[in-house]
Amino acid sequence: MRNGQQTPMKVGLFIPCYVDQFYPQLGIATYQLLEKLGVRADFPRQQTCCGQPMANTGCEQDAKPVYRHFARTFAGYDYVVAPSGSCVYHVRKHYDVVEQTPEVQRVRQSTYDLFDFITSVLGVTELPGRFPHKVGLHLSCHGQRGLHQANESEMTPVRDGQLSRLLRSVDGLALTELNRNDECCGFGGTFCITEEAVSARMGQDRVQDHLQNGTEVLTGGDMSCLMHLEGIVRRRQLPMRVLHAAEIFNAALAQPSKPVSTFVPGAVVAL
Amino acid sequence: MSSSRESILAAVRANRPPATALPPVADFGGEASVERFTEWLHFIGGQVVRLAPDQPLEDAVQQLFPKAVRIASNLLPATVPVNGQTTTEVLEAVDLAVLQGELGVAENGAVWVPEANMLHRALPMITQHLALVLDHRHIVATMHHAYAAVQHTGAYGVFIAGPSKTADIEQSLVIGAHGARSLVVLLR
Amino acid sequence: MNHPQRAAVFTSDAERTTWHDETLWFVRQKRDKAVYAIPEFQQLRQLASDIKEHTLSRLDEYLEQFERNAQANGVQVHWAADAAEHNRIVLGIMRGVGATSLVKSKSMLTEECHLNPFLVQNGIAVVDTDLGERIVQLREEAPSHLVLPAIHLKKEDVGETFHLHLGTPKGEKDPQALTEAARLHLREKFLVGQVAITGVNFAIAETGAVVVCTNEGNADLGVNLAQVHIACMGLEKLIPRTADLGVFTRLLARSATGQPVTTYTSHFAKPAPGRQIHIVIVDNGRTRQLGRPDFRASLKCIRCGACMNTCPVYRRSGGHSYDFTVPGPIGAILSPNIDLHQHSSLPFASTLCGSCTDVCPVKIDIHTQLYKWRQLIAQANELPAAKKWGMKLLSSVLARPGVYRFGGKVAREGLRLLPHGLTHATAFNPWAKARELPEAPKQSFREWFEQQSSIPTGQA
């Protein structure tokens, strides 16, 4: 929370490499959603990738220049916001292998997942708007177990988290109750290629759980999981849409269900 | 052989991680009730029978195991005498062993049986059925309390929690794997 | 074959994969139920981790204390630097008492040392007495799980095996009947076993006792009928005090199967009059692991198998796909210490979802160690060439924004314009076997952003 400061926070948008190229609509939705919440984000053009694909393959050494590039690119921002828990987790957890310059340390601390940013930094835990659909939430493992954005079923039967709270607050939106709340989808970076058989099977099982329980719109906070699941949904021509949660919120906010006076976009920034 | 001992210990010393403290012995409290003990013992396939204050043990055993012929026990008149020297052939034929349990654990239905109460170390497992007599005042809440009470586990001693069981075939629970096919705790 | 290849064979039987996954998930759910019921469970995990951490930090002292106390109890203590020495010691003990037959309860260590084939070669009859172990022994297979050795088999498979070896009626597949047949068959073995081998769950430094946890009662039955008990343990099994068992016995069975405790928790300290106890303490790479700061926490493992039950990869690829004594996530961090080259695909048999770390009762950071092994494997040049050069190329692109922008556009345009049959050809693109590629848009996000000329670009 910002305590009565008048200078607007400087927010740099990090759009993961594959989202930039293949899911521009998610980048747009993220940008517009932040704008509706009173945050004018910047998109530094020099950005590329967080380096996770290489590092998870064992090539952390090769990824170091990418880490440094990331830190340099975002050094001037108060917050770095990404619609991807996985990338954020990587920056926070694994950037320990490059020299911890003040710049690197600062960027690691100030990099946030979009919904963590909305909840923890902006202090927004409810969103107005309407989205009258049965929505199935796929929690990404890095967001949930890595960044602790939701309760882990390994620890507690309570099913709650930042993203599910935000989704529940949207008018008309019903969350699907899954048989396995937080099972991994099987994307796993290069795992989805090198362990193709298991990866595909995991994704199919995940989709099946949603299908069985009535999910119309499959969503989540990580496009990488969703790209994998969408690939299965489209291959099997299943009656299910796949949307990143930022796209849902951005669409929902376009048709507010409550009087605007109860919610003043941007007000939270000045709190 | 001794050279391996020295080389292993040397390698351990060379690779020792930084020293950390040993945490104090844990105790999280908990409920030490007969009800809880009974509930858990039932859950794991055992049975609890409460003896009336003046009820002779023989009567209860006779009622519960009318068909048991070869009975080994030091708590009631036995039909098979068993001691540390008893042969495997004799042990193998025991239908029922009635032995004293020292301590019950409410959180899991386990009963502490030290060697001194077993007549022969193999008896509690080789007998077809097992009955353990337990003083209801000797029930503790958790394994922390159990080990605190037992202090030293002696030459040989076992926590026995229910009858022998396995789920090695398709995770289907089957009672009576290699040890006793049933376990009754007779609470005094 | 490597893990992906063996896993692909396993998953090709979709129905069995479903069954395997659901059966182990059921065990995970039983574990959850047991864990949720203990309010202090997370504190217990921390305690267990701290006790093990402390023990490892003074392991030499605890080993010596344990040895002293065990010897004072009349136990003979042996030390084995590696598997071969362990096996020689066991054979030596057997020969010393003129024994030719052996009943063995569950011991992952003896599996690790490949004791059975060694003894058989030397004329010893070995009978595994744990039901699951006996089943896989009769089938000449390896266990596929730490706690549920025959979990890869269905009751029909077991029925067939017992029909062949124990003479049960053909087609008998009722678990109750099959278990009864095994009980009768194994009782005969117990009655004549001269020597009994057990593993060790915990070794108590302050008393010299070893603790063995089973559900079937086979360890106690074997040991207490035989003249000689040989307990084989890895040197990481030490814990300082009897009181520490309070922590570990509360965690072990709940994590493993969701039981509140194992049926038998047996404490062996002194041999019965006229009988012998031998304890073999084995290193076999453990001191090397102790010297690796990133990986030494793997020595805290109490072999509960919870990481297997929860692992979405293990559940769908089966224990044999790991081709290592200890399968699953924990096996994938133990195996590279034994042979980095042979097991180089195992740390990659994971999505790094982290569920293993979260269920581990001693809080081993399993998925972080998987990540770290991957780095070592790459550094040791054990990555497949395509992966290695692909990653080098990718890095060089991603460190250069201009090249990245150009490359991204080429990839996107390629995907957009090339025929589906080419972009989805499974020969080049394993992704496309079961999945569609994303539909490539005309415009990237950055191109869209740059078009928004009316939007001020901030201060950067």
From TrEMBL, chain B:
- Cited Gene3D superfamilies: NagB/RpiA/CoA transferase-like
The record's listing under SUPFAM superfamilies reads:
NagB/RpiA/CoA transferase-like
Q: Which InterPro entries match?
A: FTHF_cligase-like_sf, LUD_dom, NagB/RpiA_transferase-like
Domain LUD stretches? 80-187
Pfam families listed in its UniProt record: LUD_dom (PF02589)
Origin superkingdom: Bacteria
Tell me the protein's name.
LUD domain-containing protein
Automatic annotation (TrEMBL), chain C:
Database matches in Gene3D superfamilies: Alpha-helical ferredoxin, NagB/RpiA/CoA transferase-like
What's in the keyword line of the UniProt record?
4Fe-4S, Electron transport, Iron, Iron-sulfur, Metal-binding, Repeat, Transport
Q: Which Pfam family, any one, appears in the UniProt record? A: Fer4_8
Q: Which SUPFAM superfamilies match?
A: 4Fe-4S ferredoxins, NagB/RpiA/CoA transferase-like
Report any one BP term from Gene Ontology: lactate metabolic process
GO MF assignments: 4 iron, 4 sulfur cluster binding; metal ion binding
Q: Determine the domain of life of the protein's source.
A: Bacteria
PROSITE patterns linked: 4FE4S_FER_1, 4FE4S_FER_2
Q: Where are the transmembrane segments?
A: none
Q: Which PANTHER family match?
A: LACTATE UTILIZATION PROTEIN B
Question: What is the designated name of this protein?
Answer: Lactate utilization protein
